[in-house]
Amino acid sequence: MAESKPSDASTTRRSSSWSFGLLVLILTPVAAAIFLYQLDSFDPASLPTHEFSQEPMLVPKLNPRMLQGSEMIGQGNLLGPEDIAHDANSHLIYTGCADGWVKRVTLNESAANSVVHNWAFTGGRPLGVALGRAGQVLVADAEKGLLEISGDGVMKLLTDEAEGLKFKQTNAVDVAVDGMIYFTDASYKYGLIEFIWEILEGRPHGRLLSFDPSTQETIVLLRDLYLANGVVVSPDQTFVVFCETLMKRCTKYYIQGKRKGSVEKFIDNLPGMPDNILYDEEGHYWIALATGTKGLWDLALKYPSIRKVMAILERYIGRPHIEKNGGILAVDLEGKPGAHYYDPELSMVSSGIKVGKHLYCGSFVKPYIIRLDLDQHAARTIT
Ligand SMILES: *[C@@H]1O[C@H](CO)[C@@H](O)[C@H](O)[C@H]1NC(C)=O
Known about the structure:
By secondary structure, this protein is an alpha+beta fold. Helix content is about 15%, strand content about 40%. The strands form seven sheets. A six-stranded mixed β-sheet has the order 21-22-23-24-1-28, with no helix packed on it. A four-stranded antiparallel β-sheet has the order 2-27-26-25, with no helix packed on it. A four-stranded antiparallel β-sheet has the order 3-4-5-6, with no helix packed on it. The structure holds 2-acetamido-2-deoxy-beta-D-glucopyranose (NAG). 2-acetamido-2-deoxy-beta-D-glucopyranose binds near residues 108, 110 and 113.
């Protein structure tokens, strides 16, 4: 059967006007994007990527689906439980939440029977929490500074500036046996709600600090850190380990002995961006990785131009959701990786600690603490 076909000429005409339309459709946003890119004054910096370790990190044991079998603690009553401090005597967990409360969680074998209490209201955004030696809780509050809350809930501001520079994002805290408090200010430039700009800009505005309760003195130990985040005192009290989120690394800073004041690599080339680091009293540090970095994030850390495009998207369209494979990396006392728990569906994991047979994970955004039974869902050797 013969079909009537349009003439060749009209096909050409139609397809050429169609391709012209397509060209306009494509080029208009491209031109607008180039215009915005040129016009935008945001000027991200190159990171010192030559400091990144070249060797890939090999982790002997993995659980790449840690959400399978995990339970939710305090669902709905724990908004953005960022950091976790476990009190072994009372079996309570302290955590700082997005509603301004430092909460206390009474743990129970059954996740559903774990009870959340509002304990102390900071009026800011409590992030880091650490137990003092006399029943007090130290809080790194992103908005308020370094706080101390006594056992009966009375709050005191310890410090909120150093060397004339106010903290903009007090982030993490730990206490040495001698009472010295170590803490970080992630950035003196960007506050917590602007933290993405610290990442996109790629300049070091972070500091590692100490506060001496006996002299009330705040001392800057290190400056020019790339989003100074978690900090933990080593069990032998000779150094602290602190995380730099943007540099995907954790570094030792010696606080005792003849190396006092010097820094040394602890672990780098992490498989994600580190947040808090906690010690489990059993020979392992647990490093929370807010997001895996494979793919776009690694490119973004490498190329400022990609971060500029992300900044423009952030400003005019919104943040694309590219965070995934967040989780927890367990490393030994020497910084050697042992096990990596993560999940493609997981992002903004901000802390993790093993208590008994369970791994407890805090999150910057989720409304609960994640608990995983490590006997049942252990990381395994992948062959
Ligand atoms: C766990 O919760 C149940 C129910 O509230 C309670 O009976 C039990 O004593 C709790 N267990 C512990 C160890 O607190």
